[in-house]
Design a protein that fits this description.
about 40% helix, 3 domains, alpha+beta, 10-stranded antiparallel beta sheet, Glucose Permease (Domain IIA), about 290 residues, two-stranded antiparallel ribbon
């Protein structure tokens, strides 16, 4: 086999003679390449068609998974909003108990129940944003609960320091708060407390929690205990036969602090009980629960 090459520039020709053996070798080299191409091209096209057919199914699965995830987020959203509604109801009851007006917390957003938009109408990001918004709302309500807790604690402390407990087990009083005839002078005089008639040694109790400021004997009061309850409020327990506390001692409501006697300016065994605010005597009956 001869192959002739023609050169334009030189107008010359060259010929190459290929033997049959070389031609056979060339065919053997090219044949596998041709066969491989003939197999890969149709096969690749077939694979492409198969993937194309399966693509809708794959997309449906992905879409279904996304919807399931969104539905789960929407359910969480509903549960959180339901909890906020319950928290608001509880907060309102606590505010009433604490004597706090709801207007003090008007800055808080109102509670809501259930998702306002159907899950399929919201994207995953929108649901996440909504959950974050509700989380912030819960934080605000947590602050409100802390405020209510502080108010209720303060009220409980105030209640514990109000002299509302009877200072002795004997309810009968021989002299009330106000004007009376003085048993020593026979003249009208203002009685600044209550006198409870009781036998010598009868227990005397702290009417409220506080700090003992005085535990001593004086001319008029005899053996006396004074308790500071804070905010200018003080109670006095006079004419005792025995003092059982010392100045600086912290006492609880109902704690035994003295025993009834007749020391000082007294005509007989009794407990003289006073309540004072900033030094001024008040009617103890306004504080003592059993005498209201």
């Amino acid at each position: 086999m001869n192959i002739i090459f023609v050169s334009d520039g030189m107008a010359r020709t060259r010929s190459i003679s290929l033997r049959s053996a070389m031609l056979l070798v060339g065919l053997l080299v090219l044949l596998p390449v041709v066969l491989i191409l003939a197999f890969i091209v149709p096969h690749g096209s077939h694979e492409h068609q198969e993937v194309k057919k399966q693509l809708p199914t794959i997309l449906n699965v992905v879409s279904a998974n996304e919807l399931t995830h969104i539905d789960a987020l929407a359910q969480q959203l509903g549960e959180v909003e339901a909890r906020i509604t319950r928290l608001d109801a509880l907060s309102a009851r606590l505010a009433t108990m604490a004597g706090v007006k709801e207007s003090a917390a008007d800055a808080l957003p109102p509670g809501r129940g259930g998702p306002a938009v159907h899950a399929h109408h919201m994207s995953e990001q929108e649901l996440k944003d909504k959950l974050n918004e509700l989380a912030q709302s819960i934080d605000l309500r947590s602050d409100k609960f802390s405020m209510l807790e502080a108010v209720m604690l303060q009220k409980r402390l105030q209640a514990s320091t109000l002299p509302s407990t009877m200072p002795t087990d004997v309810a009968y009083n021989s002299s009330s708060y106000g004007w009376r005839v003085d048993p020593f002078s026979g003249q009208m005089a203002f009685h600044e407390g209550l006198d409870f008639v009781a036998g010598t040694g009868t227990p005397v109790y702290a009417s409220a929690e506080g700090i003992v400021t005085t535990a001593e004997r004086t001319h008029d009061y005899g053996k006396i205990v004074k308790i500071d309850h804070g905010a200018g409020l003080e109670t006095r327990y006079a004419h005792a036969s025995e003092l059982l506390v010392k100045p600086g001692e912290h006492v609880e409501r109902g704690q035994l602090i003295a025993r009834v006697g007749s020391t000082g300016r007294s005509t007989g065994a009794h407990l003289h009980f006073e309540v004072r605010l900033n030094g001024a005597a008040l009617d103890p009956r306004k504080y003592l629960q059993s005498m209201k």
